[in-house]
Amino acid sequence: MADKLIIFDTTLRDGEQSPGASMTRDEKLRIARQLERLKVDVIEAGFAASSNGDFEAVKAIANAIKESTVCSLARANDRDIARAAEALVGAQRSRIHTFIATSALHMEKKLRMTPDEVFEQARLSVRFARNLCGDIEFSPEDGYRSDVDFLCRVLETVIAEGATTINVPDTVGYAVPELYGSFIRTLRERIPNSDKAIWSVHCHNDLGMAVANSLAGVKIGGARQVECTINGLGERAGNTSLEEIVMAVKTRRDYYGLEVGVDATQIVPASRMVSQTTGFVVQPNKAVVGANAFAHASGIHQDGVLKARDTYEIMRAEDVGWGSNKIVLGKLSGRNAFKQRLQELGIQFDSEGEINAAFARFKDLADRKSEIFDEDILALVGDESVTREHEFYRLLSLSQHSETGERPQATVVFAAGEVEHSAESDGNGPVDASLKAIESKVGSDAELVLYSVNAITSGSTESQGEVTVRLQHGGRVVNGVGADPDIVVASAKAYLAALNKLHSNLDRVAAQG
Ligand code: KIV
Ligand code: ZN
Known about the structure:
Blueprint: E1 3-4, E2 6-9, H1 25-37, E3 42-46, H2 52-64, E4 69-75, H3 78-87, E5 94-101, H4 104-111, H5 115-130, E6 136-141, H6 148-160, E7 165-170, H7 177-190, E8 198-203, H8 210-219, E9 225-228, H9 242-251, H10 253-256, E10 258-259, H11 267-278, H12 299-307, E11 327-329, H13 335-344, H14 352-368, E12 372-373, H15 374-390, E13 393-401, E14 409-416, E15 419-426, H16 430-442, E16 447-455, E17 465-473, E18 476-484, H17 487-503
Parallel strand pairs: 1-10, 2-3, 2-9, 3-4, 4-5, 5-6, 6-7, 7-8, 8-9
Antiparallel strand pairs: 11-12, 13-14, 14-15, 16-17, 17-18
Helix pairs in contact: 1-2, 1-11, 2-3, 5-6, 7-8, 11-15, 14-15, 16-17
């Protein structure tokens, strides 16, 4: 039997640390359910001690998820660890992941602690955690840039204290594959009790090598857990991307000789859900999940694929979940059909009232768009979760006028709490006019740092436009996503969604702060 490679997904923790990617409790829960359908082994649900919101999200995920292990991050101190344990109480299988920096640079400049103090804190924290949970992961933050003798001393001790997984982060994405792989192998060879723990890799993509480094950690170093995120979401250039690791190991089983438990047909739905929820668009040429990943444009390739698909295809699109882009519902579909499709997509609502509200939106959309796809439903439900949790600002109506040679005008009617506002503005285009109209009443002073439009389903001008708006204000960055067949309306919704996030308080302590 081949060894198993454990897939540890950290989309909801490290991925969420990406500026603008913070998610609400319900959004995280929905993604966690999709990760469970994907059959990842471990879901790092958040960092329970970082904020009340994250505590609640970890708790909700721990209570809902049955198949995957649910994990919370915790700094190496008793308070964080106890908070993680508290959030995980309801989990079928739980893990506490505790970390402290071990590189000279981080210990001296960030922690202002001596190596001996860090050693002692790591030892005591793992001992404390082990009394609360049987499954403990320890990470020496900035491990790859740490002194190897010191690292061996720390890791040997935390294994002796009961750490069951040792994760070696390349926190700043500095590693190169051969060196990172050898680094893991050296640690495993030099630490006498290294066989008592599972070794894990955690790479950042600053030099574009996170996936290659992780695979070298597996192949050369003997690691048996990879930490990764959907779409490679994460701070700066992101984390190791889950879909690339899974498909590399599955497609090149001849080379890696490892089993992965992931159901690859759930990869594309997971990718779409994460992208729609966070507003982080997937680049078209992204491996596995990019819109062009299986598109053969050149005549020679198309001809080859038609004759024998393995001439130019090493994976089958349907094996990673492409092709689910089918019409699922239309304007004649009833509430039961809608409810059943929600269930098939793994979307759960807390009450019948919420299903009714989502169904009303669906009917409204179906009146304007004859074919409703899964992606449309996901976008619609995404809007719905914003409604439930944070919707202080709500779009009521929008009208705009644009004509060649004339300056466009927009009138936007929206609610701010209980108060209804009607705002007018002109602008360079109808989108500009609409956002300026909203801003004239809200006066957020936020800087618009990103605006992007995508068609939710490809191939037709009937598709809904999905707009992402990123706002920056007072050191915070938030993304708002809005979908509508009318992209001006989608833009206003996205702008209000971003304002709602600024209005709510989703701040938390950063893991690498
Ligand atoms: O990159 C990193 O060092 C981390 C740790 C907190 C595991 O994310
Ligand atoms: Zn990280």
